[in-house]
Structure formats: structure tokens, C-alpha cells
């Protein structure tokens, strides 16, 4: 590898794949953290598993699920607060 290009250890490669697969972290964010270009991670995913597209899709779905659960929690809290206010007025 040419001088000046960072390389990843096997441990780092495993950590990146694990974080994408289990935590749903974004490739661009991990690339910045490790000081590499996103294409390096995409190549790693391709070589690690044939279903790397499935891994990325799974990670995306996990992030979307977490966002939706957060929204549902906020709406539920607002609804309960609204009911408390309604009953608290003595109507």
C-alpha cells in the first residue's frame, strides 16, 4: 500500500463490520472515525460477506426503527400529558 494511506488491522475490520451489522452505524461516519474513505469500508463489506447489501439494508432499517420508536414515545408522552390537562380542569 502506498505511503500515506492508512490501513486497517484485522481487529479494526471486524469492529467496523460488527458496528454496521449490530448497531446500524453509517459507513460515512465510520470512515471519518477511522480516517479512511467510505469505499474502503464498502469493499470490506463486499469481501467479508456476499450479502453486504443486505447488511447495509439491515443497518438502515435498524436506524429507521430507532427513529420511529423515538417518535412514538414522544407522541405517547404528549397524549398522556394532554389527557392529564383535560381532566385537571374539572370539566
Number of strands: 0
Strand content: under 5%
Which value, in Å, is the CA radius of gyration? 21 Å
Tally of individual helices? 4
Distance between the termini: 75 Å
3D shape: elongated
The biggest sheet, with number of strands, parallel, antiparallel or mixed sense and barrel status, is: none
Helix content: over 70%
Unreliable parts: none
Number of individual domains: 1
Task: Write the H/E string, N to C.
Answer: HHHH
**What does the average pLDDT come to?**
82
Q: Quickly give the structural class.
A: mainly alpha
Describe this entry's structure for a reader.
The protein has 91 residues and is mostly helical. It has one domain (10-88). Helix content is 77%, strand content 0%. It is built from four helices and no strands. It has helices at residues 10-23, 27-34, 38-48, 52-88. α1 crosses α4 and α2 (27-34) crosses α3. The longest helix has 37 residues, at 52-88. It is elongated. The model has no long low-confidence stretch (mean pLDDT 82).
Task: Provide a concise account of the structure shown.
By secondary structure, the chain is mostly helical. The chain has helices spanning 10-23, 27-34, 38-48, 52-88.
Please outline the helices and strands.
Elements: H1 10-23, H2 27-34, H3 38-48, H4 52-88
Helix pairs in contact: 1-4, 2-3
